[in-house]
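Minutes, project check-in

Agenda point 3 was the complex the collaborators sent over. CS summarized: two entities, 345 residues total, and the question is how they sit relative to each other. Sequences were read into the notes so everyone works from the same version.
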Amino acid sequence: MKKSILFFIQIACLTALYQLSVWTVSTLNIPIPASVFGMIILLLLLLTGIIPDRFIGSGAAFLNKHLAFFFIPIAVGLMAYGDLIRSDGLALFLMIAGSSIIGLLITAGLSTILSSKRRSKQ
Amino acid sequence: MTILYILLTVTVYLGARVISMRCPSPFTTPVFTATAVVIAILLALNVSYEAYTPAKDIMTFLLGPATVALAVPLYHNRQVLFERLVPAVVGLVIGTMSTIASAVWLSAAFGLSETIQATAAVKAVTTPVAIEAAIIIGGDPALAAAFVMVAGIFGAVFGPFLLNIFRIKDPFSRGLGIGTVSHGIGTSQAVLEGPLQGAVSSAAMGFASIITSFVLPWFFPLL
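CS then shared the predicted structure for the full assembly.
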């Protein structure tokens, strides 16, 4: 019982932090999405020890584990593009797949090569 | 009806999770299978996306807080992140620019319209940034959201698989690549692969969205 109340309080705190970020980003015209801004703020709060890790740990772990769920209702929105998918679907898919593969391999490949070079220098 | 749509989505998601744990494969990635099944059911029942939207709004209420919560794995892995900051930033910046350029060039090669080419440029980043950036360079914001979804699902489904094929085993680089090209959806899969992958992927997602919004307005006209 105590655990589940704590859990809901943690989720509520994360929600409050997010809403605060939405407000800050729109009021100050910060060109970063509110969720990324909130992530940076929470990281700073954790790094400075203002919020101890154990205070939000289990709520955050739960949300992280089920992050994929929150994207499903949004991705269902693709059903509204039936006509476009029927006319240009294959070309669009190949374009998105091809450019994603290029970006993925360049990013991960460069990071692997540069890191191993640095390590061998040290 | 809204409650029924929520129940449907939650049930399909939980079922998709069980299947992905019993038969792990790119094709059982929950965000892919669950989305496909929910769409199929709604189409079979003749339910429009407009009718489903109130349920969507309720279910996505926690998406913002869940993204904020990614700061926790980031915090746990702070040491590695600081140690490997330089190679990570170099990889991420070059990777972001190459995914933008290749998306635009591939769209042009396939003879897709200029609006689609501009929209393609923003597909790798998280939705709010993609929408804003698409407007600035002459793309279509609604279509941008759709491209972002496809790019995210593609990265979640095939990202780990492609990295295996190319023998990129380093968990740090895996997370970096996935977060850079497939934002939150890829990150939701990277989190399940391992805490370090999840942490680096969240950082990469955030950083790629910032880089894209700064770079795109001058980089896109050059392509």
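Noted in discussion: Residues 81-122 of chain A form one domain.
Follow-up: revisit at the next meeting once the mutant set is ready.
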